[in-house]
Amino acid sequence: MAKFGEGDPRWIVEERPDATNVNNWHWTEKNATPWSKERLTTLLKDFKVDGNQMVCTIKELDKVEGEATANNRKGKLIFFYEWNLELKWEGLLAGDDTAHKGKITIPNLSEENDLEDIEITISIENNDEESNKLKSFMYNVGREKIRQQLGVYIKDLKEEYSKGLILPSKDATGKGAVKPDAVKNFASGFNKSSNVINNKKPEEEKPLGYQLDVKTLNVKEKFQCRASELYNALTTTEMVMAFTRGPVKMEPIKGGEFQLFGGNVEGRFQELVPYSKIAQTWRLKSWPSGHYSNVTIEIEEKNDYTSFTLTQTGVPTAEAEATKMNWERYYINSIKQSFGFGSFLV
Predict the structure, then answer these.
(1) Is residue 16 part of a domain?
(2) Which of 81, 83, 204, 243 has the fewest CB atoms within 10 Å, i.e. the most exposed one?
(3) Regarding beta strands 28-31 and 54-73, do their DSSP bridges make them parallel or antiparallel, or are they unpaired?
(4) Which residue from 318, 172, 309, 191 is spatially nearest to 248, judged by alpha carbons?
(5) How many other CB atoms sit within 10 Å of the CB of residue 239?
(6) Model confidence pLDDT, tens digit, residues 279-338
(7) CA 216, CA 82: separation in Å to the nearest integer?
């Protein structure tokens, strides 16, 4: 039994101002959708772009579809937002009271895209010389101004929803206080080399010709979701970030690389069959240099659940039990908890 004050901090119930979420360990989420709709409307409605004896004004947000959430676990903040916007605009030429009307479409405002990669399409109702002059002005000047407003939204979202997600300890400046900017990755069996997945020193690089003793792992599970939802959870960057609780590098195409859990899990996609099969080469950073296992995940939608079958060949025997445990804990259970894909009772 651990001595008083020396136990795992996840299970220490210390006195706190809020009495919840000790050490910011648990996954917490805030719905930022209503706030985002209001903020986007404030930033874009009646926004003017002027110059070259022209004035163009966004008159209305015709469509604001999407959602935004702010998430925290263990001091790491993750923001998800995805918006499809349609705006109505009008342009006036100097000395002319005729309003030329058009539309602005922004289909991909999300955390996946850098600000400069956000698509902004400009259209106008009429096809005359004056209208085309205003359309050209909005394309060459207006789009950049609109991107700047979208940048303000992203900045404000992160500032507004950082408040209250990182909870203070009793003494926020004392021992054990969580400093959000200092927390870079999430601790788990897959991103701590001394944790469950590997409790010994990393093996030295083996010379060519060394034959490693390996085993095959088999894991089966049931998920309460559609096959497409489970497939997307395993291959969509933002969803993988959600259940791994940290940064992800992923290119879900044949031959595409992936890195998870702070780079401690890495490999390549070998085959992707939408909604039914994922094949990968897969390794832990602590394994002997150059050694990869082969992972095949088969997904099949049944009448009332979706089956998940994982086969992993080439796992170092010394790591097999812990690797299987961590698949169940940090993939399967985490996916269920993050997305509500809990299994049916059988």
Answers:
(1) no
(2) 204
(3) antiparallel
(4) 191
(5) 18
(6) 999 999 888 888 999 999 999 999 999 999 999 999 999 889 999 999 999 999 999 988
(7) 40
Residue 137 identity (one-letter amino acid)? F
Which percentage of the chain shows pLDDT scores above 70?
Answer: 75
In angstroms, the CA 30 to CA 163 distance is: 11
Question: What CATH number is associated with residue 118?
Answer: 3.15.10.20
Which domain CATH number covers 261?
Answer: 3.30.530.20
- What local confidence, expressed as pLDDT, does residue 73 receive? 61
Segment holding 325, helix H or strand E: helix 320-326
26 C-beta neighbours (distance < 10 Å), count: 13
Provide the residue range defining the domain that includes 82.
28-160
- Token digits for 342? 């809990």
Q: Are residues 141 and 35 in the same domain?
A: yes
Q: What share of the chain is helix, strand, coil (3-state, %, to 5)?
A: 30, 35, 40
Contact, 223 vs 341, CB < 8 A? yes
Mark whether 193 and 328 lie in a shared domain: yes
CB 129 within 8 A of CB 116: no
Do residues 267 and 315 make contact, with C-beta atoms less than 8 angstroms apart?
no
153 and 190 co-located in one domain = no
Q: How many domains would you assign to the chain?
A: 2
How many residues in the chain?
346
Q: Is residue 213 part of a domain?
A: yes
Backbone φ/ψ region at 53: left (φ over 0), alpha (ψ -120 to 50), beta: left
**For residue 146, which of 98, 226, 196, 87 has the smallest C-alpha distance?**
87
Q: Assess whether 195 and 155 both reside in one domain.
A: no
Are residue 270 and residue 319 in the same domain, yes or no? yes
Residue closest to 296 by CA, chosen among 327, 329, 319: 327
CA dihedral (239, 245, 250, 253) in degrees, to 10, reads -40
